[in-house]
Amino acid sequence: MKARYIYMIFNTLKHVMGELRDQSDHYLLDPPLLGELITALRGLGYSVIGPVVREGAIVYDEIESASQLPVGLRDRQGPGYYRLEERGDKAFFGFVVGPHSWKRFLYPPRVKLFTVSRKGEVTPNNVLGKKLAFIGVRGCELAAISVLDKVLLGGPYVDPVYSAMRREVFIVAVNCTEPGENCFCLSVGTGPEAGSGYDIGLTEVVGDGVHYFVAKAGSSAGKSLLERIGARRATDEEVSEAAARIERARTLFRKGLDVNGLKDLLYKNLESPVYAEVAERCLACANCTLVCPTCFCTTVEEVTTLSGNVAERWRRWDSCFNADFSYIHGGPIRSSRMSRYRQWFTHKLATWIDQFGVMGCVGCGRCITWCPVGIDITEEAAKIRQRVLEVSAT
Amino acid sequence: MTEQSLGAATALEPFRIDWCQLVGRNKETPDTYTIRLRPLRRGEIAFSPGQFNMLYAYGVGEVPISISGASSNGQTLEHTVRAVGPVTKALTTARIGSSVGLRGPFGRGWPLREAEGQDVIIVGGGIGLAPLRPAIQHIIRNREKYGKLYVLYGARTPADLLYKKELRVWRSRLDTQLLVTVDRGDEKWRGYIGVVTTLFRYLRLEPNNTYAYVCGPEIMMRFTVQELKNQGLPDERIFISMERNMKCGVGICGHCQFGPFFVCKDGPVFSLSEVSNFFGRREV
To answer: Taking the domain B119-275, which CATH number applies?
Structure first.
């Protein structure tokens, strides 16, 4: 009896403490404070990277102030379709994801690995570590960074470039309140709310005459930064309004990937006719792999000076859609587009799980948007599943 | 900062190059050479038969090459290289005494410990004999630890046979059965003619007491595996060495994927039971 009481009291206390702690981690930022946040990060020596508009798309680049953010813009997306339009409000994060992902900063598209002199002195390229602050990391993108952590830091060998870039990253996440047309993070469990791994998590509340951010500290560094810029505690109403916006977002998804038993399904149906059908449309252009926030394949180039006294090894992003990718003496292993699409698709959705314990797809929808012919990974997965059901029904 | 683990501080250096001196070169066939490398700083490079190194020709590039042997004192490593591209041409034409970069050894080799007390059949096709050679040498050096040893080797023509001197030594051993065949003979050839799988008719294996190590072109391995299965060998005792494009050797560049495996770090040697869903499938 006594033990039960103690247990109950303990539980109640734990609950109350949890609530208190939760609330105390929520701050309120008026729009000007977002600018203060960026200034403060720069003051701490961070290069601040955030969304900006370039050539009709929202990409990530270094920013100095909040006014450079794509204020009042929304991205309309569809299979092979992307357009920016005015929202009619002053939202800072009223869009979802564009062609860039954070991997271009953590795992640069082209990077020198080392220099070798003719005498054989190898000098690794060590000038890489840099304090980076990412502003506006979505739930799917946070998940993508955690996937890359597993791939490139999980060992036995650790990638020195990624490791150096990743070490000092400050992450300001943004929860999504309006999913895009190609988003399917909800179905793969990475959004619309950002999971763990951020320093500050923002939810933007805009409309009906209000505009503010509810900020949640995800780390002690995040908390002290919020206090340094003078953010006040958010009220219960503000916190629940922000939460309600995220809840509402959950009801707005138009796309989903049925992950139930998907790995086994794909392993059992490697010869599905769906792959050959996709190949009739696929241009093997590699766009999907370049916009994918988790695709990590690279190749190397040997560069020598004219004198020949110094050679450099450069690494650049590669794609399993290139014919050269699987080249061994005699020709490429995967010469057909069918086999290259199958490689990419099964890697993302099946073999990745055996390799790294998680799926390689985070549901951001970039590969759908930036595919010139609009191939949709969720549709192709559904087709493969459907085809199996049809065959087993007959 | 995020509180995720950012990798052990003691991580291995994936891109460290160990310089070696090219101390010898043996012409095996018109386009294939066995080069001998002596590490300059690392005294001795320990390896398991079946592993490979990334060999670097200064200013040209790097290629994965199986270790095909070592000198008895462990001072030099041998690599059998077919000159088919810029890097392999540079490696096979380098001046004796010049430097060759080496990263490795990488990967998982043949399960030699596991096969102790058992018969071993080794089947090589073409240059596929190279990664098998140190396994054969290991078994011959530790002959009492193994049962019967069969070596089946097929090449296109007599001129394409590797390690000709060593083949004669192996053939003369009473404890080793070596069968060599060529696709096309010449006027001096008195041996078997036909693909390597035709040699199986001369063998009667004890399937539950035999390990098989196979390396060669994928099509050759596919038919060899079929012969081994016909003789009753279970998938867990059949081992193949896979070849894929490799850039890094350490499981980061993604090129060598074979189903869920990275050939560089999970292989190159696999048991058939591990890869049965992928092996023999076109374009995987």
So the answer is: 3.40.50.80
